[in-house]
Amino acid sequence: MVINNGRLGEVYNVGGHNERTNITIVKTVIDYIHENVDKEVTESLIKYVEDRKGHDLRYGIDPTKIKDELGWYPETTFEVGIKKTIKWYLDNEAWMKNVTSGDYQKYYSKMYENK
């Protein structure tokens, strides 16, 4: 959509006007896993830590321009999208292990470093 219809040189923020706090997202993930995978996964697993110095207080974007200029809007809600995302990761455990292993990183370093 942006490539075909956007203005050259413009930046378009893509978002759904649905900001959530980190803790809300963590609790959403825990609730999904608790209900669908493992009843032992509860909020008791959350470990609260102090904020690091200079950390960003929030990440928020304004997707008004992409909506107004290009007619883009999210096709799913946060609630549906986060559940689909969690399920995808749970269903693709082998992929997760592969991309988090040192071998994966070594492969990409070998293929793309210094080129």
UniProtKB/TrEMBL annotation:
<dbReference type="InterPro" id="IPR016040">
    <property type="entry name" value="NAD(P)-bd_dom"/>
</dbReference>
<keyword id="KW-0456">Lyase</keyword>
<feature type="domain" description="NAD(P)-binding">
    <location>
        <begin position="8"/>
        <end position="85"/>
    </location>
</feature>
<protein>
    <submittedName>
        <fullName>dTDP-glucose 4,6-dehydratase</fullName>
        <ecNumber>4.2.1.46</ecNumber>
    </submittedName>
</protein>
<dbReference type="GO" id="GO:0008460">
    <property type="term" value="F:dTDP-glucose 4,6-dehydratase activity"/>
</dbReference>
<dbReference type="InterPro" id="IPR036291">
    <property type="entry name" value="NAD(P)-bd_dom_sf"/>
</dbReference>
<dbReference type="Pfam" id="PF16363">
    <property type="entry name" value="GDP_Man_Dehyd"/>
</dbReference>
